[in-house]
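Project standup — Tuesday

K.O.: blocked on the structure for the chain from last sprint. Re-posting the sequence here as requested.
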Amino acid sequence: MPIRYERRDAVAEIVLDRPGRLNALGLDDVTALRQAFGRATAEHARGVLLRAEGRAFCVGRDLTGLSDDEDVTETLRGHFNLLIRTIQACGIPTVAAVQGPCVGAGTGLALACDLVVAAESATFASPFGRLGAIPDSGFHWFVTTRLGPALARDMVLTGRELSGEQAASAGLVARCVADAHLLTEARALVTGVAAGPTTAFGLSLAIVDDVAAGMSLDEALEAEALGQGRAFGTADFTEGRAAFLDRRPPSFSGR
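H.V.: unblocked you, prediction finished:
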């Protein structure tokens, strides 16, 4: 199957498995991805790892399935935009492991996750100028909020490509590792996050997204006050406080 769903203890792994097509996405694949993230939420997974088989993470939409009379605006609204929103709203810490080309909708797919671990072979780019089209799937928002408008313009106008190391140094992704260590590092990262107070993580990540979208300091302070009130009411805070007082490692449940 082009999209696989696997469970590794508390972590759900969602796998792009069409290496012969560089994990290009058909519309059915986009639906399957959205369902996979929904399944992870329904099954109360405490972390999600999004990864891909083969030498590429994802080269975007499979254009062989694009018909001349397709309403592309509605396709984006009803498929790709829904997928990006589903990932961002799933309420579970998400990690993407990226190797090789990550372009087109693949860029939005990876950057919609909370953390991106890029291999040294990873490349992030916008090829749409060669097609006479514009980037989509959240490219403008993710790249501009993380890198600034100057570099976003450069990537759009010239097709500038960022390596995994460059993307990490610029702040587009969280970190860059050797290709041979990508899966090990990504699994260790998501496993560690999944063992944490995931409800509190979710509250905090929502504030980070709102700040990136333009939230003011006063609004952030209020959001923190409200979020902290909710966090203090969780079982994880009770456990964390008890563990701190007992001088022992906490055992969080995500509740």
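K.O.: great, moving the ticket to review. The radius of gyration is 19 Å. Residues 3-194 form a domain with the 2-enoyl-CoA Hydratase; Chain A, domain 1 fold (CATH 3.90.226.10).
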